[in-house]
Design goal:
alpha+beta, three-stranded antiparallel sheet, 51% helix, rod-shaped
Length: 253
């Protein structure tokens, strides 16, 4: 076969192949266009929204999603800050409650709080015996030292609170006398003297009635004495003031 004829056939075969490939590409492109048009038509038909607004709605949707993400982040931050505030508030309440309990305990120890509880009462009075001729009349009246003796025995026996004629005996209370008048917390007290003590009743009674104690001595000299256990004793608070002119807390100026 001549070479010119062979070249012509080869060229024709190549053109046929390119034509077939081009036809296939065009067919595929046409199919995609048809699918896109049909899909858009179905969306428009389902949503009843003009196709020209779909792009705007998509932009709006993306903007709303970004806004929602920002709000969620803000909510998480606010919840974290709220947790911090709640923790601080709880710690503050705990500290305040502890300080309140400590303050109440200090007020009780200082004696400025009324207390109640089981205990005893001790009633003392001047002697009803008339002084004999030439006898010192001071021997028939109670002295502050007699009351100091009874109070000291009650403290030693475990009394937790003591009052004398309604005057709370605290750490700064002094029991003294001016003439025939007894002073406690700088208040003038007159007989009969009522000592009220909160503590274990049986233990307190045994303490004040011990042999050789203040009560036995007063009874021996004819002074009226009444000792009675009580289920409930009420001791009033100290109503005076505390003043420290020379004393100060060590380490503080």
């Amino acid at each position: 076969m001549p070479s010119e004829t062979r070249s012509g056939r080869t060229l024709a075969l190549s053109v046929a192949r390119w034509s077939a490939a081009l036809a296939l590409v065009l067919a595929l492109a046409g199919y995609l266009v048809v699918v896109q048009v049909r899909t858009e038509w179905q969306i428009r038909r389902a949503l009843r929204i003009p196709s020209t607004q779909l792009e705007g709605l998509a932009f709006l949707l993306r903007d709303q999603e970004r806004g929602r993400a920002a709000l969620e982040s803000q909510v998480a931050e606010l919840r974290g800050r709220l947790a911090v505030y709640e923790k601080a508030s709880a710690e503050g309440r705990t500290t305040a409650a502890k300080m309140s309990r400590d303050l109440q305990e200090l007020r009780t120890l200082a004696g400025i709080t009324a207390l109640v509880g089981p205990g005893i009462t001790v009633e003392l009075n001047d002697s009803t015996r008339l002084p004999r001729a030439g006898e010192d009349p001071n021997k028939t009246i109670l002295h502050y030292s007699d009351i100091q003796g009874v109070v000291a025995e009650l403290w030693a026996a475990g009394a937790e609170a003591i009052a004398l004629n309604g005057e709370r005996i605290v750490g700064t209370t002094g029991i003294s006398c001016v003439g025939t008048t007894i002073l406690a917390n700088t208040k003038r007290l007159a007989p009969p003297f009522l000592i009220e003590a909160v503590g274990e009743p049986k233990q307190l009674v045994q303490a004040v009635r011990r042999p050789g104690g203040a009560i036995e001595l007063l009874t021996a000299f004819g002074f009226p004495v009444k000792v009675a256990p009580r289920e409930l004793v009420e001791v009033p608070p100290y109503r005076g003031t505390f003043r420290f002119e020379y004393a100060s807390v060590e380490g503080k100026e």
